[in-house]
Design goal:
Layout: E1 13-22, E2 25-35, E3 40-44, H1 51-58, E4 66-71, E5 74-75, H2 81-88, E6 91-94, H3 106-117, H4 122-135, H5 151-163, E7 169-173, H6 181-198, E8 201-206, H7 209-215, E9 218-223, E10 226-231, H8 233-238, H9 242-249, H10 264-277
Parallel strand pairs: 3-8, 3-9, 6-7, 7-8
Antiparallel strand pairs: 1-2, 1-4, 4-5, 9-10
Helix pairs in contact: 3-4, 3-5, 4-5, 6-7
Length: 278
């Protein structure tokens, strides 16, 4: 299987004035962002700010309430299921919880996308999988069962699986969660190196400031239901916006609310509960 490179000037991912939510509740509104081939883009924000909701929109799991989501220039709202599946085969996703198959060993977990989506010979699969496991420092763990590895090791296995098809767009959902400081730094460098080598677009859904700022070309900070700021890591550091500074410094006081906002669905649920108690 050849390495994918994009010869098109089209962005790998673009959102144009997008609103996203669930039912009547809008999580994010008026989100516009662009991710070009070869870029590492960090989407940052506090817990519950809607970062993972953006990832679901990018993979076609969540249609926008308003606006357009395009992947490789294709509007996801204008394609059928088979066309969406074809686009997804050009993506890699590192899920927040790893999502490894517990009945397969480390090698077979990483080999799974190759067996599912390619016709590579067994020798080619073995070489590709061991190469990716070596990149994350786990070549010698290929034979181990998932139950025999640590949580941090499982995250690294999941990273190897996300990149084994050498996709054109890679979406990382909290790629640094559960990693020790050494593994965290190595993983960040792997993401940057992979994007440079394959000229693929990488989107990090994260709240890890230092590691993300060290490798990102552009940062989108979301909060309070909207895009607070976008720019280079340095432009965010230099910003005087109180939300940006509170987030970057981890300060307890400021415009970032600790309480999850009340929604019509919550108020309806609460009224129902109070009605039962009366």
């Amino acid at each position: 299987m050849s390495v994918h490179t994009s010869s098109s000037s089209e962005p790998a991912l673009s959102l144009d004035a997008v609103a996203l939510g669930y039912g009547d509740f809008t999580v994010l509104r008026d989100i516009t962002m662009t991710v070009q081939p070869g870029q590492v883009v960090a989407v940052m924000g506090g817990s519950g700010s809607g970062k993972t909701t953006l990832l679901r929109a990018a993979t076609g799991q969540l249609p926008p309430q308003r606006g357009r989501v395009r992947v490789f220039g294709t509007d996801l709202s204008q394609i059928d299921r088979d066309q969406l599946q074809a686009l997804r085969q050009r993506m890699g996703v590192l899920f927040q919880q790893g999502a490894l198959f517990t009945d397969l060993n480390v090698f077979e977990n990483v080999a799974f996308p190759l067996r599912e989506h390619t016709k590579m010979a067994e020798a080619e699969i073995r070489a590709r999988v061991l190469e990716k496991l070596d990149a994350v420092g786990l070549r010698a763990a290929a034979h181990l069962r998932v139950a025999e590895i640590s949580g941090g090791m499982a995250r690294r296995v999941a990273l190897a699986r996300a990149v084994v098809l050498e996709p054109e767009l890679i979406l990382y959902d909290e790629p640094f969660a559960g990693l020790d400081p050494i593994s965290l730094g190595i993983t960040a460098r792997l993401i940057r190196d992979l994007s440079d080598r394959l000229h693929c677009a990488s989107v990090l859904i994260t709240h890890d400031v230092e590691e993300s700022f060290a490798i990102a070309d552009r940062v989108y900070l979301v909060g309070q239901g909207e895009l607070v700021m976008s720019g280079t890591p340095q432009s965010l550091r230099d910003s005087s916006d109180p939300y940006v500074q509170q987030f970057l410094r981890g300060e307890p006081d400021g415009p970032v609310a600790f309480q999850y906002p009340e929604t019509p669905a919550f108020r309806a649920w609460l009224a129902k509960q109070e009605g039962r108690a009366s």
